[in-house]
């Protein structure tokens, strides 16, 4: 897997991702503890609202940001966004009111909403070979898991020396180092997509490709499953550990790390597994596991009348991490397979935006429902959400999903260059099929 790090451009970007996510992981723990410090047992509702703000910003800004930034300015914009995130994180330790948390989270996540799609769309341009790209996706998944494993572990160690407010300084340092590494990276040269298209048109283009591609509609439904399990961990871990298990700040960090252990273990196995097993089978199996874990956790919670212990929580969090990695890691392969290179930034932005609609729904169920009606109702609602997503993915993503599809063009002139590039027999031909100007609908 690590042989892709021989590519210097990817190595620098991967290192930038790692250090930024270590900082983000510290902020995740610190934000949960800050919410508990300000709101006590209502911390789940505060976190749910803060994360809902994050999702709203992601949904609205991500598609436009990828469409607005021309290829020549991507490095400059990424550096500026890293520095903006560092400044916002550095301000968080000084908040004293819940509304201040919400404003700073909106500013911080606005920068992240613009940064992430641009960053993700660079990787398939740097690593053209699909096997290398698959390895890069798994490494990227491992980097994201630093936020839920190594960062909480580091946070637990730091909390023995400093208060949780000091963790926000680590976040700022991570973003600054990320900016330095992005600056040192050689970016690939990509031609801009038709200069006469405005940002709104390019943003809609990514959405249109996404929603008209069956495998991506399945991916969207699987994002709902991932959000259901992930939101339970990200929103309610602090409440479960502090209020139910009577743990402290370090125990919150270790519980989050359990989720990361499961996720990292699967992410390291996926490159070899995906060489032998289809993306669809892996992702649907992970979705089934997520539904099963949530349903079993609900049953145990009710059976014990809420008196759960560490022997219930830690294995459940590990299995949720396993399912989560199996759901989200292969997603980049599906996106890469479903668009031309020039359209990839817009497609990644569409995935970023649409997937976070799923998270917006799940965060509200995990936070608001949990705070108002209790943890069993929240877990039950999330289990139902995951089952709906699993059923929709099974139906939307056909089992037969070849890259090359036979199709025709009823209204295409006989002298069009497309016929010369892909000769037809009796008016039909076969080639790698993606939604574009000539192929506006998926063939049946």
Q: What's the level 1 CATH class?
A: Mainly Alpha
**Proportion of residues in helical segments:** over 70%
CATH architecture: Up-down Bundle
Which oligomeric state applies?
Answer: single chain
What does this structure look like?
The structure is a single chain. The protein has 444 residues and is an all-alpha fold. The protein has one domain (2-187, 198-396): MFS general substrate transporter like domains (Growth Hormone, Chain: A), CATH 1.20.1250. Helices cover 74% and strands 2% of the residues. Strands 1-2 form a two-stranded antiparallel sheet. Helix 2 (43-68) crosses helix 4 (98-126), helix 3 (74-91) runs antiparallel to helix 7 and helix 6 packs antiparallel against helix 10 (249-276). The radius of gyration is 22 Å and the shape is globular. The chain starts with 7 loop residues before the first helix and ends in a 12-residue tail after the last strand. The model has no long low-confidence stretch (mean pLDDT 81).
List keywords for this structure.
444 residues; mainly alpha; Growth Hormone, Chain: A; transmembrane helix; MFS; MFS_trans_sf; transmembrane
Brief rundown of the structure:
It is found in: Cell membrane. It holds the Pfam family MFS_1. The chain is an all-alpha fold and 444 residues long.
Topology:
Elements: H1 8-39, H2 43-68, H3 74-91, H4 98-126, H5 130-146, H6 150-158, H7 167-183, H8 199-211, H9 214-244, H10 249-276, H11 279-303, H12 310-328, H13 331-337, H14 344-373, H15 375-396, E1 404-408, H16 417-421, E2 428-432
Antiparallel strand pairs: 1-2
Helix pairs in contact: 1-2, 1-4, 1-5, 1-6, 1-7, 1-9, 2-4, 2-8, 2-9, 2-14, 3-4, 3-7, 4-14, 5-10, 6-10, 8-14, 9-10, 9-11, 9-12, 9-14, 9-15, 10-12, 11-12, 11-15, 14-15
Transmembrane segments: 12-34, 46-69, 173-192, 218-240, 252-270, 282-304, 310-332, 344-367, 373-394
Organism: Stenotrophomonas nitritireducens
Membrane topology: Multi-pass membrane protein
């Amino acid at each position: 897997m690590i042989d892709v790090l021989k590519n210097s451009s990817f190595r620098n970007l991967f290192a930038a991702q790692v250090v930024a996510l270590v900082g983000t992981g510290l902020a995740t723990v610190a934000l949960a503890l800050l919410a508990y410090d300000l709101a006590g047992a209502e911390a789940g509702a505060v976190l749910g609202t803060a994360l809902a703000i994050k999702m709203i910003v992601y949904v609205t800004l991500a598609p436009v940001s990828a469409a607005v930034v021309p290829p020549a300015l991507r490095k400059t914009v990424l550096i500026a966004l890293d520095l903006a995130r560092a400044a916002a994180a550095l301000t968080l330790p000084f908040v004293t009111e819940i509304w201040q948390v919400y404003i700073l989270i909106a500013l911080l996540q606005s920068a992240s909403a613009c940064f992430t799609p641009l960053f993700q769309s660079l990787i398939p341009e740097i690593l053209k070979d699909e096997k290398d790209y698959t390895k890069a996706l798994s490494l990227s998944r491992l980097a994201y898991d630093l936020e839920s494993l190594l960062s909480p572990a580091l946070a637990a160690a730091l909390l023995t020396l400093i208060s949780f407010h000091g963790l926000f300084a680590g976040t700022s340092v991570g973003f600054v180092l990320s900016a330095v590494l992005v600056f040192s990276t050689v970016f690939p040269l990509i031609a801009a997509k038709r200069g006469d298209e405005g940002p709104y048109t390019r943003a809609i283009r990514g959405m249109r490709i996404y929603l008209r591609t069956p495998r991506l509609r399945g991916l969207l439904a699987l994002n709902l499953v991932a959000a259901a399990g992930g939101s339970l961990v990200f929103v309610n871990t602090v409440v479960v550990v502090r209020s139910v298990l009577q743990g402290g700040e370090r125990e919150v960090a270790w519980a989050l790390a359990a989720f990361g252990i499961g996720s990292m273990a699967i992410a390291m196995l996926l490159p070899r597994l995906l060489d032998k097993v289809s993306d669809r089978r892996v992702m649907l199996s992970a979705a089934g596991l997520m539904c099963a874990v949530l349903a079993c956790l609900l049953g145990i919670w009710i059976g014990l009348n809420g008196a759960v212990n560490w022997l219930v929580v830690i294995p459940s969090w590990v299995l949720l991490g396993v399912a989560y990695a199996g759901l989200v890691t292969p997603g980049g392969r599906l996106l890469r397979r479903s668009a031309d290179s020039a359209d990839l930034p817009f497609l990644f932005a569409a995935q970023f935006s649409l997937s976070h609609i799923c998270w917006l729904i799940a965060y509200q169920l995990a936070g608001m429902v949990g705070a108002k009606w209790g943890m069993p109702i929240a877990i039950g609602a999330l289990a139902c959400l995951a089952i709906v997503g699993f059923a929709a993915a099974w139906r939307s993503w056909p089992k037969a999903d070849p890259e090359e599809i036979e199709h025709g063009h009823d209204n295409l002139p006989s002298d069009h260059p497309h016929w010369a590039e892909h000769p037809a027999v009796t008016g039909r031909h076969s080639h790698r099929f993606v939604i574009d100007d000539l192929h506006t609908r998926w063939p049946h």
